[in-house]
Amino acid sequence: MNPLFSLAVNPLVHLNAVLNSIATVLLVLGFVLIKRGHRQAHGWVMLSAFLVSCLFLVSYLTYHYSAGSVRFTHPGFVKVVYLVILVTHVVLAMTVPFLAAATIAYALLGTGFKKASELPAEDRSRYLAKHRKIARWTLPIWLYVSITGVVVYVMLYHLWPPADL
């Protein structure tokens, strides 16, 4: 591997990996906070994870719009593993914006954010129940996507980079 390889690649590739890593840390921190009963801190950390993931999405789309895509050229079993990770990552990544937005919306309604504070207590309780129910799906999928995004980056750009990069 060319020691200068990482400097020759579009810097957005590295930024994307950093943003995915930060999102992963924030998601885990948010989970720990809610398990310890720190609801307000959990909310702010999860909103931060959503913001970081939005920044990632903008950077990711900008990169692929301007630079195209990079093929994984290493043959054999490693390529199969890479493709399985990549396909599951991409398929699940398409669900994260919708799941995250719904999870956040239910949380905001359930906690009485802004005008939602005028909702009857039983409605807010119902929204919090929906939040908890969908969050059980959102968190593991979002974590998987964030972690595998970094794994794909490491495999493609550091462990087995294409010869023409």
TrEMBL record:
Q: Does the keyword Transmembrane helix apply?
A: yes
Q: Which keywords belong to this entry?
A: Membrane, Transmembrane, Transmembrane helix
Q: Does the record carry Transmembrane as a key word? A: yes
Q: Write down the InterPro entries for this protein, in alphabetical order.
A: DUF420
Q: Offer one Pfam family short name for this entry.
A: DUF420
Transmembrane parts of this sequence? 12-34, 41-61, 81-109, 141-160
Which protein are we looking at? Answer: DUF420 domain-containing protein
Q: Lineage of this protein's species?
A: Bacteria, Pseudomonadati, Planctomycetota, Planctomycetia, Pirellulales
